[in-house]
Amino acid sequence: MSTNLTAPVDQSPQHHKPKTPRAKLSYPKVLLIVSGSLILLSLLRVITGATNLTESGQYTAALNAAVPIGLAGLGGLWAERSGVINIGLEGMMMLGAFSAGAVGWQHGPWAAAAAGILGGALGGLLHAVVTVTFGVDHIISGVAINIMALGLTQFLAKLWFGADGSAAAAAGGNDKQSPPMPDMPTFTVPGLSHWLSAVEQHHWFLVSDVAGIAGSLVTNVSWLTVATAVVFVLTFFVLWRSPFGLRLRSCGEGPIAAESLGVNVYRYKYAAVVVSGALAGLGGAFLAIYVHIYQDGQTGGRGYIGLATMIFGNWRPGGVAMGAGLFGFMDALQLRGGGPTVHALLLLLAVLLVGLALWKLRGGQRIQAAISLAAAALLAVWYATTDTVPLEIVGVAPYIATLLVLSLAAQRLRPPKAIGKIYRRGQGK
Amino acid sequence: MELRGITKRFPGVVANHDIDITIRRGTVHALVGENGAGKSTLMKILYGMQKPDEGTIGIDGERVSFHSPADAIARGIGMVHQHFMLADNLTVLENVVLGGEKLHGIGGKARTEILKISERYGLGVRPDVLVEDLGVADRQRVEILKVLYRGARTLILDEPTAVLVPQEVDALFDNLRELKAEGLTVIFISHKLGEVLSVADDITVIRRGTTVASVVPGETTPKQLAELMVGSELPSPQTRESTVTDVEMLKAEGLRLSTADAEGVERIVLDDVSLTIHKGEVLGIAGVEGNGQAELVEAIMGMRDPDSGTITLDGSDISRLPTRTRREDGIGYIPEDRHRHGLLLEAPLWENRILGHVTEKPNAKGLLLDLKAARADTERIVAEYDVRTPGIEVTAASLSGGNQQKLIVGREMSHHPKLLIAAHPTRGVDVGAQAQIWDQIREARREGLAVLLISADLDELIGLSDTLRVMYRGRLVADADPATITPEELGSAMTGAATGHLTVSEDGPAEGRTEEGGSE
Amino acid sequence: GESSTEAGGKDKGVGLAFDVGGRDDHSFNEAAARGVDKAQKDFGVKSKMMTAKNGETEADREQRLSSLAEAGYNPVIGVGFNYGKSVNKVAKQFPKTTFGVVDSPSQAKNVYGMVFAENEASYLAGVAAALKSKTHKVGFIGGVNNALIQKFQAGFEQGVKETDPKAKVTSEYLYANDDKGFNDPAAAKGKAKGMLDAGIDVIYTAAGQSGNGSIETVAGKKGTWAIGVDSDQYLQPGLAQYKNSILTSVMKNVDVAVYDLVQSVHDKKPLTGNKSYTLKDNGVRLSTSGGFIKDIQAKIDAAKKKIASGQVKVSDTPAKQ
Amino acid sequence: MKKSARFDKNKVILGIAAPVLAIVAALLITSVIILATGKDPLHAYAVMLDFGSKSDSQVWIINKAVPYYLSALAVAIGFRMNLFNIGVDGQYRIAAFFAAVVGGALTLPGFLQIPLIILVAMLVGSVWAGIAGLLKTTRGVSEVITTIMLNAIAAAVIGYFLQDGRLAVKDGNLFHTPSLPASSHFFSIPTQPAPLDGFLVVAVVVGFAYWFVLNRTRFGFDLRTVGQSESAAEAGGVGVKRMIVTSMLLSGAAAGLIGMPTLLGESYNYGTDFPIGIGFTGIAIALLGRNHPVGMAAAALLWGFLERTGTQLEFEDYQQEIVGVMQGVIVLCVVVAYELVRRYGLRLQQRQVGAELAAQARKTEKAEVSS
Ligand SMILES: Nc1ncnc2c1ncn2[C@@H]1O[C@H](COP(=O)(O)OP(=O)(O)OP(=O)(O)O)[C@@H](O)[C@H]1O
Ligand SMILES: Nc1ncnc2c1ncn2[C@@H]1O[C@H](COP(=O)(O)OP(=O)(O)OP(=O)(O)O)[C@@H](O)[C@H]1O
Ligand SMILES: [Mg+2]
Ligand SMILES: [Mg+2]
User: Fold this and answer.
1) CB contacts < 8 Å between A and C, how many?
2) pLDDT in tens, B389-441
3) Closest CA of chain A from D129, distance in Å
4) Which domain holds residue B223?
5) Does domain A52-335 have CATH number 1.10.620?
6) Cβ-count burial of D236 within 10 angstroms (0-12 exposed, 13-18 middle, 19+ buried)?
7) Residue B182 sits in the same domain as residue B317
8) Best CA proximity match to C216, nearest among C206, C207, C226, C208
9) How many structural domains is chain B composed of?
10) Nearest ligand by distance to the CA of B191
11) Model-level pTM?
């Protein structure tokens, strides 16, 4: 998934405006960053004793939390790359989760996943009809779809799962939840998983840490998680390396230009929004499959968070994956009593801020350096005077992180140019 | 290629009415007509972007009907639009291959092909640059390459020269002749008659949506052509007597403005700009679009905050004042893009009359609006400025461009400005309205108004101005006397080829004095 | 127009207003329904059951109760402490109707408040956990950190400590104050996994629906036990595949309480005031299905006796760490 | 004059056309759904109408509509500016929470305490919304995303403080802030069979103020200008950034009022059972009422009506959840219908203007010929 960290933009040589080459992450750089972060994490674990930082269980939980968010974010990415804002992701996830629940208890988890995709895609189709064909404001349509999906799933759940004397009710369904479905199969790389877990137990510096993180990737991983990883890679190749993707993105960057070259903009927007819904639906289905049942309120705002990860990830699959990973990691920390771990992260943050301050100082930006330094000092004091962080703060950390990242980096983000604009065929003058 | 009886109606307008044109293979065919005559619409029909309500298109004797540009492309027709059709965030390569992916893919083969075409026609296109980073002329070459890449045999160029300076126009024409030599057909739209006569093999004149004449360049003069175009004597922007006083109305000193782009790179858009406009003076600024004129206007209006420099209006420093106060202090503003900056398209006319002057009489009483007075005054403007509308309750969007512009002019004049900023005041306006707007500017000038005029129409600029300055890369690089200067000379300064005070030299185009640039 | 309360109706049977979980929540709503079902079988009363929506206001709950009373149902029972306030208010408008409220005491004169000594049964669960744990590490997962769930936590912690002073109890909540905590098995899964990873081998979960997630997780690791809550989770169809990991369940006999109330109204001797269902009178108890606590039954019974006799006083708020 | 009368008439007809179209479409779709479940939709509507017209139902509906209406107003202030304040939900909750904390800590006479509580709520609400406004103007972050984040953060802040020993007390199974003294109980309007919430008066006043400020003041004109065209507003001298922050502050202040009917008239404290989600309902109602003060009032009442009568459907063996479907379908139909009607209206007007001008032109030509 790291391939897509490489921005497909090139340096522009001799040019009348002074331009620095756009930042490009090459493979060596990515490797350097990854190994650097690993060493930092290991160090931090050794210093603070917060084993959660690199424990395999932590990463398994993080992965499970990240998958639905990531799928929603990827769904957002598809829609927005074609120029359609999709705030209806939440509703599409609901439809996906519901459909999965409705189908899964009789036909198993794979059918549930397929149903989730279909349910979400239907939601996407509705959004496409309303925004593309009828030209309604995208956000308004999305909100309306969320309201609608909520009403519909609650109504149908009562009708299908909770009806007195029905087979579903007998199988354990009720007004608010579907009957349970069988487990989604998982895979474990036979020898490797065991070996890694053994290495992890030794708590060797770096080695055990890497083993812990790697272990989570080869032990009891749901096939749906694997499928999600594939979808991320596929998205990159389809959107950035295929004619179809070029056309789709062109609809988000300049629909009138695309139209003038014979691209059927409506068709691509439809395709993108339907895929967007399908991905969100799969995210919803993952939620249902993970706990074997569909439940009312199961999505819990993950559609909105997916949207945030998409922006956070600069409308790129790699970025979305990172954003979802952050939310997943924090979610997992909160679940696993991550107070001490977040406490340890305070120290890391303080150190990073000191680094930033030095860097800014070198660049001559004194004020920013001073601010960073002050923040670092505050964090250090916080770290020194406490030994854990309240769980409420752990839970809210990703939201604050998103806010911070967005407010620090919003100017560097490159949303598609024509995003949210109503496009009508033949409007070009 | 034959177009027969083409008719196209838009709500409220008949853009094309029973048009007949025949285009010979391997020629450059020019289409001339005033703004709004229906040229672009006709070409969009030929390119499949719009469907004609009536009429037929025939190619090589075969009747065709296009449902989308793809159909036209398949027939070897390509079009470079009046407003460029490029996606800024995509690379040149992506923009070129878009829609034509089947030809050479979207990867290395396509890049090779692009470089090949670029070399063959001397276009100098770099495939991996973001379009966002290109200037106008470069963008146009990308557009042309886009069409050639698809193997088009017929090229439609819709006003390709509007944004180019004369030297760039010459380069373009060289390209066109090259294409013609290769056997391609070029359809070329312009209302710059000199150009047309120099490059075209056939000329068709369109007036009010219909063909009025087909002529051959050798048998006609620019004057005849112009009269065919407007159907009467050409209106002239010539100002007669000078009304310039020595009272300074606007004085800008050392304006400097830089903007940071997405990557955080600073770009200087105004570089030490100083100018003075006196009461009763029209100061014209020439320059290729994107050289800082828009930013200069916005800096004077207070819509942008210059990094340094001062602006004085009628003796008082307004550098730090917000836009609203500047307007209250007497700056009138006819914006370059009336849809973006001058109107609320979906609001009724009387609300548009309030726009920009909400704090002033008759629109407001204290903190409240005075709707009655505002409505009454809108009626007055409509009558006085000949805004053709059935009433003041209709939305601005339902008026034609010229009438929208007259409303804006009326609105701005109603507040008796000391300084009027007129950016492209007659762009996209029909000839009748054009003459009226010129008259109004002249009259206001007589009454002691100072005018900052910005226009891409060099005739308008030379005709109306008392003083001319040329802007290039954020600097005022040259000045000229409108009484003696010609558009060509102005053009050479606009490309940066000449600086200082422009005088007519004996042999050929203007030569700038070698002294330091034009800013005082 | 005319007020809907004037329309009136005859005696129609029991009106049951559920909390958001609804009738088949496999938890206390279901238990209440079971009580009504039993009453129906025993003396033929009819019933109407209605369920709350998410994010309700007092007005919604009041409307539900008064609609039931208005339609002629008697008694009208609010299931869940959320109905505490609204039952009191509506009861005043319908003095001839008997109301009941589960999990909340009441002051109104025609209301029967049914509260349960969850802490006492949880104490026994603590005893069982302490005896069964091999690692001397046990865990408690609460759905939402509210006063009701704190009763479970307090009893459990006390039971563990007083049985095995060496044992370490880890108590955590899924959410601080979001009712989602009763409805988020995914979160409970993660919590339970974290506890298992930390070496905890008995986990008691008091989190409504979410508990399923933790039971499932515990079942995935050999040699560990889950303790269920509210109803006998060993017998629950949805959990059948994990039942061999369910050590026991802390049961609140809501069905008994509801049955009592319905019967009293049927007998025209309506119960009012507050009643605390305790260990002593089997209002709360530990389930024995599966027989996994057979070996320690004697010790559990001993503890129960101490509580019943008042020798051991079980706290209803957790000791501050 | 005659002509503008005709355009006005058109405007009125088109204005009504959208909601009528939407409601008809929504009824049709809902009927199909009910029919599909094998039940009679007409009977359902009859039950709803009958129960909804009862006097106690009407009181209930109005009381329920008051916070909905306030919420819609808060959302609409943003909408008129093209700002999408999804954060009304977080704003009113955190506002009500701190207002309850302040109110519970003080015992002043009512005429001081009540305004003080309301003021605190409006202040906290606007601070919370203002964060989003500031981030938008200074850092260019979309308010949609920041308000979503701020909703989650507000919930966490409340969750942190709403615990025994922090800012809350334990009461039975609930935690809530210390209750307000009796002096700060808001008045109610004694109607039969149940009293109307006194905050109705506040809602009406705020609704009128909303209309007046938007349509009759310079400030309102500026605000609407920004909503219609940011670039035109900027050129017209409106400080767009300041306007964005100001309207977010106003929106947040209005959001602060949403929790007040509950706090001052019903619960007298902020507890774990304080109603949530009204901010999202407000979005639906603002969409439905087209940001118009009267339209939103009608929409809020419609919402109250649906919720009131939905419960009654259960007694007739319908699913009360059908109400949720109705709400969703209505909103969706309404937004589509508005857009269709708006575009049709615009085209119609363009055509009319064209036709009328052509007729004028012909007349003058004729006049010239005949003279
Ligand atoms: N999509 C459209 N909808 C409505 N009216 C249109 C549309 N496109 C063009 N028109 C109108 O049709 C008429 C002809 O426009 P067109 O763009 O063809 O003129 P043109 O000759 O290209 O003018 P210019 O020299 O300004 O480019 C104008 O009155 C214009 O306003
Ligand atoms: N002979 C050709 N010469 C030039 N371009 C061509 C030719 N054949 C195809 N193309 C280009 O390839 C594009 C794709 O062709 P295709 O048949 O896929 O169109 P389409 O399916 O109608 O497009 P879309 O799926 O986007 O609506 C065309 O739009 C056109 O730009
Ligand atoms: Mg195709
Ligand atoms: Mg044109």
Assistant:
1) 84
2) 878 888 888 787 778 888 999 999 888 888 999 988 887 676 667 788 888 88
3) 14
4) 2-230
5) no
6) buried
7) no
8) C226
9) 3
10) 1
11) 0.86
